[in-house]
Design a protein that fits this description.
five-stranded antiparallel β-sheet; alpha+beta; 9 strands; 258 residues; 26% strand; 7 helices; 36% helix; four-stranded mixed β-sheet
Amino acid sequence: MITTFSGVVIRSCNSGESDRMITVLCAEYGKVTVLAKGARKTGSKFMSSASLYSYSTFTVQKEEEISFLREADAHNTFFGLHNSLPAIALAGYACAVCEDVATEDEGGMLMRLLLNTLFALSEGKKDIRIVKAAFELTVSCICGFLPDLFACSICGGGISKESYLDVMNGTVICSDCKEKLNGEKTANDGTASVICPITPTVITALRYIISADIKRIFSFSVGDDDLPMLEAVCEKYLLNHLERSFDALDFYKTVREV
């Protein structure tokens, strides 16, 4: 069976003496694993398209349990990523997250998000912390963890000043209700609580991210005083809901500090 689709290479590893085994995120089939024979040979027609982060059109032939790459046309390799070690490290983290959460059925929204993330990192015009935060919160929403950020989950009142994000319940708590909780360590449903303070600027940014079209999720600004909080909250929200960590995230943090 021969299939043609467009997608992003989210994993690429050596196989045999000169081949590459790649994992492609595409809209139609989610994750697809493909063997690109001879892709590591000098002058291989697959060298560019089988590289990590490459966005290409792939023609794949499936034989029994293995899919072989027959043709490939690279559209964008996001070469600008190589101008910044933190950018390429964050791109690796984004790919690792997508590989973890993508299904093998459909990956349209996830691929759109990854393409926009790679483009923003490659262009280098947006603060990398904004790109990271918006990516993480949007992935959470795609996975079904859309937070309710427009009213206090306890009293139902509006949020206009410093408040708190109840990470595991995906809700916000106003400062008055937080004081009434008397330091409870568990949520009402018995789930361990992860409560993060958030400023009005941060909650405005969070609301923008969850409401914006994917192609515009990076089109906002946050001051240096609030940006570390935004980044930390979005990271904590994603990792707690996925219930895991990522080595690629640890690597990103290491190179960003250099």
